[in-house]
TrEMBL record:
This is Ferritin-like diiron domain-containing protein. It comes from bioreactor metagenome. Residues 36-179 form the Ferritin-like diiron domain. One of its GO terms (molecular function) is oxidoreductase activity. Pfam families: Rubrerythrin. InterPro entries: Ferritin-like, Ferritin-like_diiron, Ferritin-like_SF, Rbr2/Nigerythrin, Rr_diiron-bd_dom.
Length: 220
């Protein structure tokens, strides 16, 4: 009887030790990364930014087609350039997630395509939100979390979206004044940060990241 009791007691103690050891370890996700880190605010913001930039890229590609259908070639080129730019931002954000050990598949939202004038206004509204609300908050949170790569990626997008607001606003004003043909019809997009130039303000080296002009995507 004493022998049975001793065996039982030993088994319970061993089980408790294993349970304790298992509980002391941080949960890991299927990628082997710390699940608590995956739920951090900056990682959530990176995922949201990936989705937003992916949606914007797809949306502007369709806006480009619509502008071309309506005969606004310069505006079509502008949307083609900004679509490429947003794609660069999405890829940058995804790369930061990968560096943090997070695998993520972008999820694009639905959107509607209207007249080119309406599409330009929708683009202005979307970029203005990112400039005034989304990215400033994302940058601040990433700085708090000491995620330097996220800060850099967010700032690349933030500074570029400010330029996009100016480009879209100028395009809409020209369209409303029936001066669309005076707009630039040649654009350059930095492959590293996504910054967007027209042929009148293109730099030999990107003003955001220093990338050489020879490496820019050219839309003309």
């Amino acid at each position: 009887m004493k022998r049975k009791l001793l065996i039982f007691t030993t088994t319970v103690v061993v089980a408790l030790i294993f349970a304790s050891c298992g509980g002391s370890k941080k949960d890991k996700n299927e990628n082997g990364t710390d699940s608590t880190k995956q739920e951090s605010a900056t990682i959530k913001n990176l995922k949201d930014a990936v989705n937003g930039e992916t949606t914007a890229s797809a949306k502007y590609a369709e806006f480009s087609k619509k502008a071309k259908e309506e005969g606004f070639i310069s505006i079509s080129k502008l949307f083609e350039a900004t679509s490429k730019s947003e794609s660069v931002h999405a890829q940058n954000h995804l790369k930061v997630l990968e560096d943090l050990g997070v695998k993520y598949e972008a999820k694009a939202d639905t959107f509607s395509v209207k007249t080119t004038a309406e599409n330009l206004q929708a683009a202005i509204d979307g970029e203005t939100y990112e400039v005034e609300n989304m990215y400033p908050g994302f940058v601040k949170q990433a700085e708090t979390d000491k995620e330097d790569k996220a800060v850099r990626s967010f700032n690349f997008a933030f500074d570029t979206e400010k330029k996009h607001v100016k480009l879209y606003t100028s395009a809409l004003e020209s369209l409303n004044a029936s001066k669309e043909k005076t707009l630039a019809a040649e654009y350059y997009v930095c492959p590293k940060c996504g910054f967007t130039y027209d042929k009148n303000d293109v730099k030999e080296n990107c003003e955001l990241c220093g990338t050489s002009k020879e490496k820019y995507y050219v839309i003309k």
